[in-house]
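User: Show me a protein chain along with its predicted structure.
Assistant: Here is one chain, sequence first, then structure tokens.
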Amino acid sequence: MTNLAQFPAKLRFLFQPSRYKIAYGGRGAAKSWGFARALLIQGAQRPIRVLCAREIQKSIKESVHQLLGDQIDALGLAGHYDVLADEIRGANGTKFTFAGLRHNVGNIPSKEGLDIVWVEEAQSVSKHSWEKLIPTIRKDGSEIWISFNPELEDDETYQRFVVKPPSSAKVVKINWRDNPWFPRVLREEMEELQRTDYDAYLTVWEGNCRVTLDGAIFANELRATIAGERIKHVPHTEGMPVYTFWDLGRADLTAIWFAQTIGFEHRLIDYYENCGHLIPHYLRELQSRPYVYGQHWLPHDAAHKLQAAEKTIKQQVEAVFPGIVNIVPLMNVTNQINAARTIFPRCWFDREKTEDGVKALKYYQFKVDPQTGQRSKEPMHNWPSHGSSAFQYFAVAIKEPRGKPKPRERRGSGGGWMAA
């Protein structure tokens, strides 16, 4: 087809066979536009099965479904593709489906038969999701396409596919200057940010990693946690109670932290989140773990009766765990954040089991006015806010041990779990 002429030169590798195809960089590079067009053109040339995925997708509106539909019209392929409510079908058997990875990667239907998986906004995809997804895409000649704007250098996607890419990967950095159709309105925005905040410009438009996110609420605490090597293997101590701390949602995420207090240390040994499930799902998750529970702490809205529900969430949890269910004291979000900051120095996080929870803490941000750069006192309400709110409830509810901790150099000096 002649459509290759309509692609930025740096994206023409999408038409060359490769197991991994990675495009990363700043805003305005036409990455998503180019990926969508390349897939639609190839899907018109031959029947292929394509999964369009991202880390979290709570509805089809959060997918690239609309983008693909727009590009079908722009390419003049409306006669070939049928755009349905939750999938796109080609007249030759090509099929596009859509899914989130974090809570669905084990249930994506017919992964073995997929020809291409396109992971969009891949900067937020976790190690767990990659390790579950990649081995299941094993059809001969199958490909994994990855597009993203980098954020933090230690993000799993950046490390896995840019810093240490597979030998079978084609990796391209593409920015606004590589887009021949870069619009004037974006150029004006780019030049304004370049003048007013050059560091932000380097991240937003040049695709360079930043040290912390703009407005990151726990940036200093996480730096200290990493420097103190308090994100590592943290084992479950048998015989000691495990406490859980919840943030509730149904359409949104429900997040649960699992913690043990051993001496002067708060050990965050586990974390679970999911969406679209009722309370019995989470109760089964708790029961499936080998823990003896001390207390379960729920947010204040768990005591409210829901419409058309016979029992409150608190009553549902109490039915399974009688006598150990509590409501976190009501406190404004500023005081919750301060409580979390105060407790951070005593917290240890299991590297594997709390990966998603720690990621939420990294991405938890205050709202930032894009024009003035001023930060609001209110956090953003998005996917990181649920795990972060649950952590703040932990900080508010947990009873701090009395006395003074022993000097750090004397703790764990004999090896044990801290040396792991």
